[in-house]
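Before relying on records like the one below, remember that each one covers exactly one chain. Contacts with other chains, cofactors or solvent are not represented anywhere in the record.
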Amino acid sequence: MIVVVCSGGPSTEICNLVPYHETANVVFIGADRGAYYLLEKGIVPHAIVGDFDSVTELEWQQLEEVVDNVEKFQAEKDETDTDLALLKALTYNPSEIVLTGVTGGRLDHYEAALRSVCRLQLEYPAIRIKIVNTYNELRFLTPGTHDLDKHELFQYISFFAHNEHVDEVTLRGVKYETTAEPMALSSSRFTSNEIIADNAYIEFTSGICLMIRSVD
């Protein structure tokens, strides 16, 4: 099962959700204003969570009329609305969580979302968790070997050490290959690569690697 979480970043930064809407076995969760963005796209969320301080009274009434699973919280809380939506997503036992609507607005909200996704990916390694917008897809990789599939949209691929150095990075099937090279926390050496083979992969022995796939 795929769970799509739509947060309240600017609607222009929300990726095209139509392919997910047309896929069976997909659950949509709206976080705060992200719930209303789903409605605007013709998608009725399976669940909505947050304090909903970013929607108008009329928009809130529209949401209450069509959504069965509503969890409304006080504005003063420890978790962000996105955190609450991600926790809700986990209750569906997903194989994949897609988070959108977090990259184009406030930078503190983006940084919080990035940290939350990293934490959850480490806690739930069997779940594929990614952040997407119109032009990018972000994932956190843990030590081991990860296949890199070709993507018609996201042609370029970059890797960055996150929180700590990444050791012995080997890249195969890409334009710029490496063999057991270190990836320093401050390094931009692994930016803007391209997948050129069907059997491409990245392999490393320690650290946390942020992978960003992008449109030109």
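Residues 155 and 203 are 20 Å apart (CA to CA).
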